């Protein structure tokens, strides 16, 4: 039986490689066409937020830091809250479609398509000592969606997960402007105390302005954490 | 069964290999590693693979035990059927014939006159002839690393050479041909057409590319292609078959449905296989094409890797001995490596990058097999392949097919194509000749041991896995494996002395432990008798090229420290020139006053041209390396001896706890002088003087030096009737063990500092 592609549902011919034959690597669950449509972030990135820099005009960056991050750094309230952010894929039209299918339309199985890249990119940028802190959903949203996409991503990584954040139910982030997001009250609360010595990595699906992860990071820092960074599936 | 056939194919290969080789710890280890791998990786296939291995193992044992002759040496009268192409090369006719008893034998006939040669060219396939002649056993390999003719024929279920006393078409009659013979005679006709209508410089290449026939290619040119690792271009393989099948399919669907076109091609492919000489690479490519076409016809999806593995197993069932052929191994390993590396090659988008990566993968995967069979590889192989693969695939091959096709349709129209073809082939041949003769940059590594082969395998697979992540550092492992291979002789604590079987003549190879020194005493040499034009063969057998150099290269000899020429007889130094051409020599050693002999004088000139140091030695000279001392006992300038033989260099040394005396062609008079000068001389091993002639090895010498072992380097059935029975009697009377190259093939003494053991090629 030939496998079907998780995305396009067409039958496809997987290509065997040396590592398929000889190592324990699993075959890809996407056909070659769908796999190629994903754009990995693998070139120059902003050293702060992990945004790909190669298509960014020079007027929007300063050295290897993008203007967005400069704005965060110049703000005394937010300076140094988040050590860094790293993301796996570029949040382009394809990724937008794939993520919305996964998250909003509940095609949970698609997460398998991310597994290999997520693990690889994470281990490239973060220490294996890290403790993962997924961004939570409010109870209402969790009920509506059936699963927490950030926690699902964290579970791919086989590292300790610390589900200590809670959030109030508010309007969706994606319906707000940057300014609104920044002006927002911090919606996160801590459920318990932290293991202070370990580096913490906040996990989320998309990094757009960075407001969400910074709000979460701020709460963690207020609780005494010293090293807080974030890792997301896609970077807008 | 998705992509799982590979595990079964490997199991099948293991079964065949186990069935043919002697059981050893090494094969047991490999088998357990593979079982463990399967157990971890593909547990559901474990039993299937085990059954496959056992099945193929039993099948191989069954095939091998039934590969026996029913003919006997006493037979003289034969009724034979000509079933294979008849090649007449100079004064020799060779073909495979089927006897009345339905056993194939290899017929070899030396043609006596030019008139007879003309008559014999009228022989055709399907004729039945009655001949009188004798059956001879084919030669086994008489030297380490030499070609084993007996085994080669046995793999084709042939056990005898038939040598007719006379052979003429008058004793033959035509019979109806089988379809197979018909195809072969069409092929022969096609080859003749190419020879007749194409310019001489293109004939060999066009014949090779269209019919897979290389016999018309110039010997040194073919050697050049071989040396530079380009010879695969001259074999019909996957790209040919793909091109032809693609072109035919495209052509056929203009006239008929896809289904009919597929069926037509399925019928034509076996015909094509026979027409192109049915070499392993053609069979593989056609078989794979047939599976793909059949799968497309039946609308079954099958992956390329599974196609390859099915083909491999099918070929092993049809002809289990194929596994041991270089052609089979290279064809499958390169196809396998390319198919599995396909995802990796496709990561690269530029076509030049893809070409480079493809060439790299093909070259690296073939490396251990090339080293095993040919002992060396050329550094130019990689860059030249990058240039030649597209040249052959996109220009020379299509042009050859096109000009031949056009020639058959309307001959005059083909001339521009033929002209273009001639230009391109001339340029490419010139290029090959230039690189192979001026700077082949060959790296001689010798035949890798099984342990090294495993190292190569692991290193190469690791390199390919790394390459999949676009990391090139894995190739460092391959370089490390090559390095280990290159230094392995220097680590080896064994030295060896080999009396190389060069027929009538002398050639003794001495290697010190840890390769502290490599010495060659004499080179052998065969006087060729002047031949008339019609008698000249494409490839004239030559001791240096065909025996000594393969032996040296197989041993991984990159240079000779001293080449000692005991004296100027052709059977001792005839091959020296070709050896100096192929293997760097640091010093040429001849006896003092040796240049009086014209052959030696000529050799010294050649050596000087090549900037090889020449040293004349006499009694009293010696040299040493660590604890190994070598003493020259002869010639002596005081003796005023003028006879060449008695002026032979005589060498005394101690190796592996034994004392050795190498006497060249020393005769009675020389022996007397030797005993006079060294009355206390005692030796354990005596290289018997002058091939066991009665004029040497006289009683007084034996009494004086009291050897335990006598080594005689002598040709089988030589014209001088050496060794003389009296010499053998004298040796036997002293209770001396005798080893003879005519009976034992090469004699090898493997030693460490204190002790050593003798082995012979033909026990």
UniProtKB/TrEMBL annotation, chain A:
It comes from Thermaerobacillus caldiproteolyticus. InterPro entries: ComF/GntX_DNA_util-trans, PRTase-like, PRTase_dom. The lineage of its organism: Bacteria, Bacillati, Bacillota, Bacilli, Bacillales. Belongs to the ComF/GntX family. This is Competence protein ComFC.
UniProtKB/TrEMBL annotation, chain B:
The chain crosses the membrane at residues 6-33, 45-62, 230-253, 265-294, 300-318, 330-349, 355-375, 387-410, 450-467, 474-491. InterPro entries: ComA-like_MBL (IPR035681), ComEC_N (IPR004477), Competence_ComEC/Rec2 (IPR004797), Competence_DNA_uptake (IPR052159), DUF4131 (IPR025405), Metallo-B-lactamas (IPR001279), RibonucZ/Hydroxyglut_hydro (IPR036866). One of its GO terms (cellular component) is plasma membrane. One of its GO terms (biological process) is establishment of competence for transformation. Keywords: Cell membrane, Membrane, Transmembrane, Transmembrane helix. It is a multi-pass membrane protein. It holds the Pfam family Lactamase_B. It is found in: Cell membrane. PANTHER family: DNA INTERNALIZATION/COMPETENCE PROTEIN COMEC/REC2 (PTHR30619), RECOMBINATION PROTEIN 2 (PTHR30619:SF1). This is Competence protein ComEC. The lineage of its organism: Bacteria, Bacillati, Bacillota, Bacilli, Bacillales.
């Amino acid at each position: 039986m030939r496998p079907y592609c998780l995305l396009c549902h067409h039958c496809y011919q997987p290509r065997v490689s040396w590592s398929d034959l000889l190592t324990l690597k699993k075959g890809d669950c996407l056909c070659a066409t769908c796999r190629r449509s994903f754009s990995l972030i693998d070139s120059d990135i902003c050293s702060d937020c992990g945004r790909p820099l190669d298509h960014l005009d020079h007027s929007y960056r300063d050295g290897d830091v993008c203007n967005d991050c400069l704005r965060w750094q110049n703000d005394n309230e937010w300076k140094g809250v988040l050590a860094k952010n790293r993301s796996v894929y570029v949040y382009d039209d394809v990724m937008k479609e794939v993520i919305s299918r996964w998250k909003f339309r509940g095609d949970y199985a698609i997460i398998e398509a991310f597994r290999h890249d997520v693990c690889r990119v994470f281990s490239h940028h973060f220490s294996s000592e890290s403790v993962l802190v997924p961004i939570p959903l409010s109870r209402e949203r969790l009920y509506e969606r059936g699963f927490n996409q950030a926690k699902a991503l964290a579970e791919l990584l086989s590292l300790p997960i610390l589900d200590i954040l809670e959030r109030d139910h508010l309007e969706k982030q994606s319906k707000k402007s940057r300014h609104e997001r920044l002006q927002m009250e911090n919606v996160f609360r801590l459920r318990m105390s932290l293991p202070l010595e370990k580096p913490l990595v906040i996990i989320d699906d998309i990094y757009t302005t960075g407001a969400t992860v910074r709000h979460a990071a701020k709460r963690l820092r207020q609780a005494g954490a010293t090293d807080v960074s974030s890792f997301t599936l896609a970077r807008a | 069964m998705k992509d799982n056939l590979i595990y079964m194919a490997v199991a099948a290969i293991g079964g065949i290999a186990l069935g043919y080789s002697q059981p050893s710890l090494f094969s047991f280890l490999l088998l357990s590693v593979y079982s463990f791998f399967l157990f971890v990786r593909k547990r559901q296939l474990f039993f299937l693979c085990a059954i496959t291995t056992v099945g193929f193992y039993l099948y191989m044992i069954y095939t091998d035990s039934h590969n026996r002759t029913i003919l006997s040496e006493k037979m003289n009268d034969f009724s034979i059927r000509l079933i294979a192409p008849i090649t007449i090369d100079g004064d020799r006719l060779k073909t495979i014939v089927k006897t009345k008893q339905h056993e194939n034998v290899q017929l070899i006939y030396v043609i006596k006159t030019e008139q007879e040669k003309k008559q014999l060219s009228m022989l055709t396939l399907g004729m039945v002839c009655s001949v009188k002649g004798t059956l001879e056993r084919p030669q086994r390999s008489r030297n380490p690393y030499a070609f084993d003719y007996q085994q080669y024929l046995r793999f084709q279920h042939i056990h005898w050479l038939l040598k007719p006393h006379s052979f003429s078409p008058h004793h033959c009659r035509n019979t109806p041909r089988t379809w197979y013979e018909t195809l072969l005679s069409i092929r022969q006709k096609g080859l003749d057409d190419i020879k007749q209508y194409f310019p001489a410089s293109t004939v060999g290449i066009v014949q090779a590319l269209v019919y897979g026939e290389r016999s018309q290619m110039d010997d040194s040119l073919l050697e050049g292609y071989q040396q530079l690792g380009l010879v695969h271009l001259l074999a019909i393989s996957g790209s040919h078959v793909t091109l032809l099948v693609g072109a035919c399919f495209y052509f056929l669907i203009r006239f008929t449905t896809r289904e009919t076109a597929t069926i037509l091609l399925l019928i034509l492919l076996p015909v094509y296989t026979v027409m192109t000489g049915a070499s392993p690479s053609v069979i593989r490519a056609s078989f794979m094409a047939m599976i793909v076409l059949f799968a497309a016809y039946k609308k079954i999806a099958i992956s390329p890797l599974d196609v390859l593995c099915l083909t491999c197993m099918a070929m092993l069932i049809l002809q289990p001995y194929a596994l041991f052929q270089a052609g089979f191994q290279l064809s499958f390993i390169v196809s396998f490596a390319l198919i599995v590396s396909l995802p990796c090659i496709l990561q690269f988008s530029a076509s030049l990058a893809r070409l480079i990566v493809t060439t790299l993968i093909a070259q690296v995967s073939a490396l251990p097999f090339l080293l095993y069979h040919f002992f060396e590889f050329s550094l130019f192989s990689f860059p030249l392949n990058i240039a030649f693969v597209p040249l052959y695939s996109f220009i020379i091959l299509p042009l050859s097919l096109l000009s031949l096709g056009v020639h058959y349709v309307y001959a005059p129209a083909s001339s521009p194509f033929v002209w273009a073809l001639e230009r391109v082939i001339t340029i490419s041949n010139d290029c090959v000749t230039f690189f192979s003769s001026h700077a082949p940059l060959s790296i001689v590594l010798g035949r890798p041991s099984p342990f090294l082969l495993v190292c190569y395998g692991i290193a190469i697979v690791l390199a390919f896995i790394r390459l999949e992540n676009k990391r090139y550092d894995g190739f460092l492992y391959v370089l490390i494996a090559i390095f280990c291979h290159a230094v392995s002789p220097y680590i080896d604590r064994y030295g060896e002395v080999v009396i190389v079987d060069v027929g009538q003549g002398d050639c003794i190879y001495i290697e010190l432990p840890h390769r502290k020194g490599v010495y060659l005493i004499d080179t052998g040499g065969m006087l060729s008798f002047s031949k008339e034009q019609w008698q000249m063969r494409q490839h004239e057998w030559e001791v240096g090229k065909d025996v000594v150099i393969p032996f040296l290269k197989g041993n991984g000899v990159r240079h000779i420290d001293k080449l000692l020429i005991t004296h100027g007889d052709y059977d001792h130094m005839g091959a020296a020139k070709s050896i100096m051409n192929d293997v760097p020599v640091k010093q040429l050693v001849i006896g003092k006053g040796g240049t009086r002999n014209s052959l030696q004088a000529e050799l010294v000139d050649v050596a000087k041209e090549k900037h090889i140091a020449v040293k004349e030695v006499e009694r009293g000279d010696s040299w040493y390396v660590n604890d190994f001392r070598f003493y020259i006992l002869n010639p002596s300038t005081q003796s005023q001896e003028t006879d060449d033989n008695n002026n032979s260099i005589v060498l005394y040394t101690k190796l592996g706890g034994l004392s050795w005396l190498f006497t060249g062609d020393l005769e009675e008079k020389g022996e007397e002088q030797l005993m006079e000068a060294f009355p206390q001389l005692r030796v354990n091993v005596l290289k018997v003087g002058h091939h066991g002639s009665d004029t040497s090895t006289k009683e007084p010498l034996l009494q004086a030096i009291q050897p335990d072992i006598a080594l005689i380097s002598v040709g089988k059935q030589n014209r001088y009737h050496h060794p003389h029975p009296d010499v053998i009697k004298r040796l036997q009377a002293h209770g001396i063990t005798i080893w003879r190259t005519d009976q034992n093939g090469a004699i090898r003494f493997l030693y460490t500092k204190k002790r050593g053991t003798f082995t012979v090629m033909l026990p």
